Amino acid sequence: MKLHRVFVAATLAAALAMPVTSFAKPQDRDDKKEMQEKHPEIREAIRQLEQTKDDLEHKAASDFHGHKTAAIKSINEAIHHLREALESDKH
């Protein structure tokens, strides 16, 4: 059980760390779009989490004794919270 918690925590940390390193210096977006977009970092994090989820669902070799399912659940929760954050800023 302890190993399960460690694996889930490490997977979630890795998934959440990927967007941080990739949006620190945007390279493929032009400056105008960034100025128009209120929270490009959050939208990019959502995009990368969705890609990671898709990779896990379609490319991962096995379920890893339920760990893949747990990681996907955590990713879904993270995406949900990020979308709620965007929505809350509209009001």
Walk me through the structure:
- It is a single chain.
- This protein has one domain.
- It has helices at 2-23, 31-36, 40-59, 67-88.
- Helices cover 77% and strands 0% of the residues.
- The radius of gyration is 15 Å and the shape is elongated.
- Helix 1 crosses helix 4 (67-88) and helix 3 (40-59) packs antiparallel against helix 4 (67-88).
- It is built from four helices and no strands.
- The longest helix has 22 residues, at 2-23.
- By secondary structure, the chain is mainly α.
User: How would the global form be characterised?
Assistant: elongated
- End-to-end Cα distance, whole Å, is 42 Å
Q: Spans of 5+ residues with little confidence (pLDDT < 50)?
A: none
Biggest sheet overview: none
The helix-strand sequence is HHHH
List keywords for this structure.
91 residues, mainly alpha, 4 helices, elongated
Condensed summary:
The chain is built from four helices and no strands. It has 91 residues and is mostly helical. Helix 1 (2-23) crosses helix 3 (40-59).
